[in-house]
Write a structure and sequence with these properties.
The chain is an alpha+beta fold. Helix content is about 40%, strand content about 35%. The protein has 2 domains: about 1-110, Jelly Rolls (Sandwich), CATH 2.60.120; about 130-165. This is TMD11 protein.
Length: about 200
């Protein structure tokens, strides 16, 4: 995505609880001479801030023009990931555009390759099997999270339908009451004027 040099850009990522998130990014600065984005942006860094759904800051750190950030979600919900350059140029001068390449992997798992190489083939298979089991647990947690969201949505829909039904009943009772009152008022009016 593109952003201004001093502008803050945020993305929202819906993440289950107890999930490791790994993000890789690379920043390119617009060059007015070549009319293209430079492959690297020397001296330019990025502040990366991650906020949980409750507003707690999980990560706030300055990185270079490219880097990797990681954090673990402790509760499920929408996490906000914000990027802002550390440019010290004035806003008038800092009209330069930035291009940010971002890759976010949710539920990433690390394998220690040096430990795997040190062990024999049986142990390597064992470590990979443990990694697969961990990934299965991650998928299970994500399915549980989706079930929670579906259950909340269903409860909200049922409550809305119930409220609509009661509102329709109340409107009908009010309409019937007004109709009866109008008929009674007209009858009393006609009786008082001796038209009936």
């Amino acid at each position: 995505f593109h952003t201004g040099e001093r502008e803050e850009k945020c993305i929202i990522e819906d993440i289950p609880s107890e999930t490791l998130v790994v993000g890789n990014y690379k920043v390119q600065r617009w060059d007015i001479h070549t009319h293209d984005f430079l492959e690297s942006a020397p001296g330019l860094g990025m502040f990366v801030t991650v906020t949980s759904p409750t507003g707690e800051v999980l990560l706030s750190k300055l990185y270079g023009p490219q880097g990797t950030f990681t954090f673990t979600s402790y509760i499920s919900g929408e996490h906000i990931i914000c990027f802002q350059s550390n440019s010290t140029r004035f806003a008038v001068i800092a009209g330069s555009k930035l291009r940010i390449h971002l890759d976010i992997r949710v539920g990433e798992h690390f394998l220690d390759e040096s430990a795997i190489q040190a062990k024999d083939k049986v142990n390597e298979v064992n470590v990979r099997l443990e990694n697969l089991i961990e990934q299965i647990h991650h998928v299970t947690r994500e399915q549980d999270y989706e079930r929670e969201r579906e259950e909340k949505f269903r409860k909200t829909s049922e409550e809305t339908n119930s409220n609509i039904l009661w509102w329709a009943i109340v409107q009908t009772l009010i309409l019937i009451s007004v109709g009866i009152w109008q008929i009674k008022s007209l009858r009393d009016f006609f009786i008082s004027k001796k038209l009936v």
